[in-house]
Design goal:
The chain has helices at about 1-15, 20-45, 65-75, 100-110, 125-130, 160-180, 185-210, 225-230, 250-260, 275-285, 305-320, and strands at about 45-50, 60-65, 80-85, 115, 135-140, 145-150, 155, 215-220, 235-240, 265-270, 290. The protein is an alpha/beta fold. It has a five-stranded mixed beta sheet, with helices on one face. Helix 3 crosses helix 6 (about 160-180), helix 6 packs antiparallel against helix 7 (about 185-210) and helix 7 (about 185-210) runs parallel beside helix 11. The two termini are about 35 Å apart. The protein binds zinc ion. Zinc ion (ZN) binds near residues 96, 221 and 223.
Length: about 325
């Protein structure tokens, strides 16, 4: 399933690179194919902890998008009667500019708790709360130390910082202890287990990547400042500021000049976006394009329990390879 979707994604990228109407047509056809695939994912979009079945769930939790879903299923692991549903579909990616659909609102009407990433990711919240003032919402970014962009706005991608995702997990665990007090011990235990796994991951990565401090990298869109912060990397340039919006020719020229000037050897693209701009820069500068995954897409079911750890490990491996760390 995953491989199939990935292949379709690659086709879209290839189609985007073709000139003229044929390319547009092909891209549209393939985008529809991807949406068709996600239809089958819809049925597996629900995680039931401890065997709760449909209407029998005691606690219904809806998450706004994939990274939040991953944290919440880890916090509700082995708790009977808890249902966790992810509101958005696998190909949605980040929620920048996401518009709520009628079925999203319907889903939220049945929720005991809506867990959002916060930090400005869910731009639809003001509108939603104006209509649904009684919806119980947990902003999982409370207390996270956020980074801010040049425009003064918070960078919402804090789950890519191990400390950020740990605080998110703590917020979720604490809220669930209140809502479902009978299982408070299990929520506390789940948080402790999650924090130990994060500590172990951080420990190996920090030793391995010590020699990366101060190296300059170029990334695609703004998902990676947290990642860079953790390892003392400097982001020399961001190729696309808004996902899906290609840089203008003059922006591209500036980035190419920066890459040449700093002798940047590695460009980091994301699998969710067409790597065309990165490829142009690579051709012009001789730098290599690598793929880092911001962990925003995936099929939301219990098989995803370890996905955060899997993808972070893969990202660290890619970083090491790209920056020549043995
Ligand atoms: Zn994003």
């Amino acid at each position: 399933m995953l491989t199939r979707r990935k292949r379709v994604g690659n086709f879209i990228n290839a189609a985007m690179a073709m000139p003229g109407t044929l390319a547009v047509l092909l891209a549209v056809v393939l985008a529809v194919a991807v949406m068709g695939l996600s239809g089958c994912a819809l049925r597996s979009n629900t995680a039931k902890g401890g065997g709760a079945q449909g209407d029998g769930a005691r606690v219904r939790i809806v998450t706004s998008f994939y990274p939040v879903y991953l944290t919440v299923i880890n916090m509700t692991k082995d708790v009977p009667g808890v249902e966790v549903v992810n509101m958005t579909q696998p190909q949605t990616g980040c929620l920048h500019d996401y518009q709520l659909k009628p079925q999203d609102v319907e889903m939220l009407d049945r929720a005991d708790l809506f867990v959002i990433n916060g930090a400005g990711m869910e731009t639809f919240m003001a509108k939603l709360l104006a209509q649904r003032g009684d919806l119980k919402v947990l902003d999982a970014s409370a207390g996270v130390s956020l980074l801010y962009g040049g425009d003064g706005a918070a960078n919402a991608h804090y789950w890519l910082d191990l400390d950020g995702v740990l605080r998110q997990a703590q917020n979720v665990s604490n809220e669930l202890k209140k809502i479902d007090a009978a299982h408070a011990a299990q929520y506390a235990e789940n948080y402790v287990e999650f924090s130990h796994r994060l500590e172990a991951l951080a420990g190996t990565m920090r030793t391995d990547l010590e020699s990366l401090k101060g190296k300059e990298i170029v990334t695609f869109h703004e998902a990676f400042p947290y990642f860079a912060k953790m390892f003392g990397l400097k982001i020399a340039a961001v190729i696309e500021r808004d996902p899906g919006v290609a840089p203008t020719p003059s922006e591209l020229e500036k980035i190419i000049a920066t890459v040449k000037e700093l002798g940047v050897k590695a460009l980091f693209a994301e699998p969710q976006y067409a790597p065309k701009a990165a490829e142009v820069i690579a051709q012009e500068t001789g730098a290599q394009v690598y793929s880092l995954d911001p962990i925003v897409t995936g099929v939301a079911n219990l098989d995803a329990m370890d996905d955060y750890f899997r993808k972070m490990e893969q990202n660290f491996k890619t970083l090491k390879l790209a920056l020549g760390v043995q």
